[in-house]
Batch of 4 targets.
Target 1
Amino acid sequence: MNGQKPSLITPALIGGAAAGVLSGLPFFQCLCCLWIIGGAVLASYLLSREAPNPLTPGDGALVGAFTGVFAAAASAIISIPFARIQLAFLKKFFDRFQEYIPAASRPEGLDRFLNIEVRGFSLPAFLFNLVVLSLVFAALGTLGGIIGASLFGRRAAAPSAPNPPQPPQPGSLS
């Protein structure tokens, strides 16, 4: 590699795709923070295999942040088909929530918030979701990358050659 650092993009894409797909699926979303950290650790591992030198925490943080951004994009795209299902679930949740709070004691704007309509895809909502996910996932990915660099960044020292046997010293009895 002539002293060059390996590309961060390929490991970040692999880790981000794995974490993003798992974070975008409805029943796996509850562990999304864990998926992002795990994807960044995976990216750090893949990067450490390609790197000629041990990874630094900065290398891990950088590959982790890229992993988080790629995971946010994958998660946002994967969640598009499930948006209607999730909104319907949210609507049922809010309907049940209204049963337990008397109308007289509700805050002013809560009724408008609780009476959401289930609609299809919305580009502004998608873009807002993508920006928020990118920021949060990049922070979590940075943490995972630092963890991965500390786990996989250090290489074991090459075993030293055993000392050759020394010839006997003159005047010693052996």
Target 2
Amino acid sequence: MIRLVLFAALVAVPIAEIAVLLVVGSAIGALPTIGLIVLTAIIGAALLRRQGTAAFGRLQADLQANRVPAAAIGHALTVAVAGVLLLTPGFITDAVGFLLFVPAVRSALWRRIRSSIKVHRLDPETGPDFRHPGAPPRGERTIDLDADDYGPPDPSSPWHGRRDG
């Protein structure tokens, strides 16, 4: 279902953008239409720089305060999407991009999708070591045996002959 909606959007949005560009171009002319597209891209780049810096600052502050930065990540991603939409030529994507730069719209969007997002915390002491993929989680004990510390199985052991996973 999601693929179908995504496909429909990828087809419908460019067609709608072309239609709007044709209508606006016929109303005000080709050069003013191109000028508006360039102007919204410039404004979008400026907004992206200013609000993107602020959003990533909040993300960094949450991380330094040892808080889960879920909302800050959501806002930063929304600002990034808004910037991409404003840099994309077209008036429909510009309108959506400008809406996403409004903090109240971002907050409302975040409140709406927040319940479907799961946040998992990793304990830095016992969580996986991402610097060494495949390494056992930190904090687990490693037992180093010498050659004389082990030998053939003891037949009187309760585990003798048992095969575990």
Target 3
Amino acid sequence: MFWNRVLLALVVGVAAYALALVLAGRFVGDQLFDRLGFGPSDGEIDNGRPYEYVRLLYGVLGAVIVGWMITVGAIVIGPLRKGEPWAWWAIAGALIVWFGLDTSLSLVLGFTGHAAFNLVFAIGLAIPMAVIRLQLRGRPVG
């Protein structure tokens, strides 16, 4: 039970840090992420290597998405397949938070193309989620 609490505390801490990156990205990124990840850089966020820095950001984002999808996949093939309602809510909650934060930030920063991509992707995910929800409620699905 102790280690379960430790793990949960770490998960909450990482989620809070990630949310701070979304909501106050420049401050949190400059003051914490960049300094911890790259060390002092005389005010240059990319250490004079903008191409490599962008590649790093894509790589970090890709790694996070892979980790997230492994977790979602494990829930899909385990508890969701067994019909456990909490599993649907866990996936739906993660998707709603992702869509809300990512799309809102994209719109605030003026990246409407990315917001549109999110919408198409979210619709694609919403269709099987809606069908599975109906199945969990015991309604016949065609």
Target 4
Amino acid sequence: MKIYTRTGDEGTTGLFGGRRVRKTNPRVEAYGAVDELNAVLGLAASVLDDEALRDQLLAIQNRLFDVGADIATPPDAKAGDWLHRVPSAWVSELEADIDTLQSGLPALAAFILPGGTSAAAALHMARTACRRAERRLLAATESGEPIGEPVPRYLNRLSDYLFVAARAANASAGVDDVTVARD
């Protein structure tokens, strides 16, 4: 299979279902930001020592593949059985994971700076990439692109999860969170 098709050389790409749009289309920007988030999560997982947390990130990466496909497939497009729309249950599952991770952490007493371990810093990078993906998704919906209702909620909750996961990565390594210094 060839990697290049040359069909995008003029600045267009195909959505799932066949419609061609500009590569600057808000829908394309949104699923591109999700793809970037997935890559940052791969980086975070590669430097993470905590195996259980790494397994959670791998599961999230797989779900992000489905999130991107959901965004790339307009509701009226004909899609095969390969398409998995984002269910609301994924949001609830993230909330349960957040609660579990947070139960083993000290209470927040100060603002947290991105840092500590390399893994925590990478998870904070993923959190900011997730927030950007969420903003791109909201811009797409505001421009009139129909997107399934659970998708923005999933990305919003995922950024919360990544914040707590960064704290958990530090705690797992025995490193304190880096907090904002107050003079």
